[in-house]
Specification:
Layout: H1 2-18, E1 30-39, E2 43-48, E3 51-56, E4 62-65, E5 68-69, E6 80-90, E7 93-104
Parallel strand pairs: 3-7, 4-7
Antiparallel strand pairs: 1-2, 1-6, 2-3, 4-5, 6-7
């Protein structure tokens, strides 16, 4: 009886170790367009048709202004922007994190 139990247990462990893992599901990219209303150290506020949205940036976020690569501090309120972001869970709750911000100024 103990041998059978041990054999079953070892089989379960072997299957768990070598079974393919579930693929990680990334959230779908979210595209937003609107007017920048504020620029801070960690992101921007964007006024869209659906309301105001706070979008965080990281060191990986690609930011451009009128087609030229810039840093976050180069953006200003009233610049128009198109943002590609994803929803990320943080300790403070869900946040939008930008992959790219394409801003335009006249």
């Amino acid at each position: 009886m103990a041998r059978n139990l041990l054999a079953v247990l070892l089989t379960i462990i072997a299957i768990a170790m070598f079974a393919p893992a579930q693929p990680a599901t990334a959230s779908e990219p979210i595209e937003l367009s609107g007017v920048i209303t504020a620029v801070g150290e960690q992101g921007i506020s964007l006024h869209t048709r659906r309301g105001d949205v706070r979008i965080m940036v990281t060191e990986r976020t690609v930011i451009s202004l009128n087609g030229e690569r810039v840093r976050l501090g180069a953006l200003q309120p009233r610049d128009r922007a198109h943002v590609v972001a994803e929803r990320v869970r943080t300790r403070q709750g869900p946040r939008l994190v930008a992959h790219s911000i394409r801003a335009f100024r006249r």
